[in-house]
Amino acid sequence: MLQQIPSYMKAGQEYMRLWPMKKQLYALFPECRIIAATKLAIKIMPPIAVLVVAMQIHFLGNQVLPQALTMGAFFISLPLQGMLWLGHRAEQELPPAILSWYKEIYAKMATHGCELREQRSKPRFKELAVLLRTAFKDLDKAFTKNLF
């Protein structure tokens, strides 16, 4: 398990880059909310962690150093947890309901002449992200409105 953490982190970063942040997807997938929260946490959690540790040591003294460091580590770990979740999600196979929707979108895009990667027999959420990104980038708004 410990050896998978760096690969999950890398997959999470890639998945965060691939996933289209469109308003139509917010209600359908938790990815949009997790990505937004993770991006925010990457920006604000390190300063908050330093502030929490510094304030506890300043006001309560060196006796609370272990607790202060633990709280700082907690705040630092929040963006990492988001990345791990995204990395794990990217590697999961699509459930049957989403799989049929994926195949329907793939078929419609293929008939419209979009350049697509070869369809996998068991697509993962990462392939769904690539497909959705291509759909929003290459197709007109009327077509994507019918999909969602």
Write a concise keyword list for the protein shown above.
mainly alpha, 7 helices, 76% helix, elongated
Helix and strand topology:
Elements: H1 4-18, H2 23-26, H3 31-60, H4 65-91, H5 96-111, H6 125-138, H7 141-147
Helix pairs in contact: 1-4, 3-4
Question: What would you say this structure looks like, in words?
Answer:
There is one protein chain. The protein is an all-alpha fold and 148 residues long. Helix content is 76%, strand content 0%. The chain has helices spanning 4-18, 23-26, 31-60, 65-91, 96-111, 125-138, 141-147. The radius of gyration is 20 Å and the shape is elongated.
Task: Please provide a brief summary of the model.
The protein is mainly α and 148 residues long. The protein has helices at 4-18, 23-26, 31-60, 65-91, 96-111, 125-138, 141-147.
User: Could you give a short account of the major beta sheet?
Assistant: none
Give the overall form: elongated
Instruction: Estimate the strand proportion.
Output: under 5%
What is the overall number of helices? 7
Fraction of residues in H or I helices: over 70%
Number of strands: 0
| SSE run | HHHHHHH
Structural class based on helices, strands and sheet pairing: mainly alpha
Query: Uncertain segments of ≥5 residues (pLDDT<50)?
Result: none
Radius of gyration: 20 Å
N→C terminal distance: 37 Å
Mean pLDDT: 90
